[in-house]
Amino acid sequence: VFNSPPLKELIVPNCNTLHPGFIKSSLEVLKMPSVRSLSDGVINALKGHSKLEIVQLGVASVNDELFMDQTSLQEAHLVVYNDPETSTPIGVTIGARAFKGCTNLNLVGCTHIEVIGESAFEGCSTLQSSNIDLSNVTSAGISSFSGCIAFTTPSLDVLETIASLMFKDCSSITSIYAPLATGVNDSAFNGCSSLN
């Protein structure tokens, strides 16, 4: 009987659907930039995956808790597409707790994140502010970056309100650029011991 080696990489650049059967427990790299939405089966297969290190998808929204506590995850690349009618980028939404507890996540490759849910990156202790583009974020939830101890100088060019506990315990932050912010909620910077 022929035994194939475990599937470690799945790279299919032009496929727009993904069957949950391809999400094997041995999978370390998943690159499917043409996949625009995930079925319930794929979502369930991805949740709690223990070996995934690099993921690339073309989804406009990363589901709530999709990669939560996946400590092996190091890179998440989210492909941005243009609206066919206006040719403007379609903003990406990061759901609540989508990457919470991904302690080895050090790169979020996406040029147009618009909405970040509650606790979306909480506890991503190796994620540096220079490795995630926040320049288009219009809304960010409570505790969205709480515990991101490698954050140093986040730039939030269009964000108007800094949520409660948003940067709690981000002890390496030395400055924040948020020129349009008109509201800063309670405890937004609790534990930011390096903030000037």
What's the short story on this structure?
The chain has 196 residues and is mostly beta strands.
Structure, explained:
By secondary structure, this protein is mainly beta. Helices cover 4% and strands 17% of the residues. The protein has one helix spanning 40-46; strands at 9-11, 29-32, 54-57, 61-62, 75-78, 92-94, 107-109, 113-116, 139-140, 161-162, 183-184. It has a 5-stranded parallel beta sheet, with no helix packed on it. Strand 2 (29-32), helix 1 and strand 3 (54-57) form a beta-alpha-beta unit. It is globular. It starts with 8 loop residues before the first strand and ends in a 12-residue tail after the last strand. The model has no long low-confidence stretch (mean pLDDT 91).
From the structure above, extract its key features.
mainly beta, 5-stranded parallel β-sheet, 4-stranded parallel β-sheet, 1 helix
Radius of gyration: 17 Å
Residue ranges: pLDDT <50 for 5 or more in a row?
A: none
Q: What structural class results from the helix and strand content?
A: mainly beta
Major sheet size, sense and barrel closure:
5 strands, parallel
Shape summary: globular
- Helix proportion of residues, in percent? under 10%
How are the strands ordered across the major sheet?
Answer: 1-2-3-5-7
Distance between the termini: 65 Å
Strand content: 15-25%
Total helix count? 1
Order of helices and strands: EEHEEEEEEEEE
Can you give the mean pLDDT? Answer: 91
Number of strands: 11
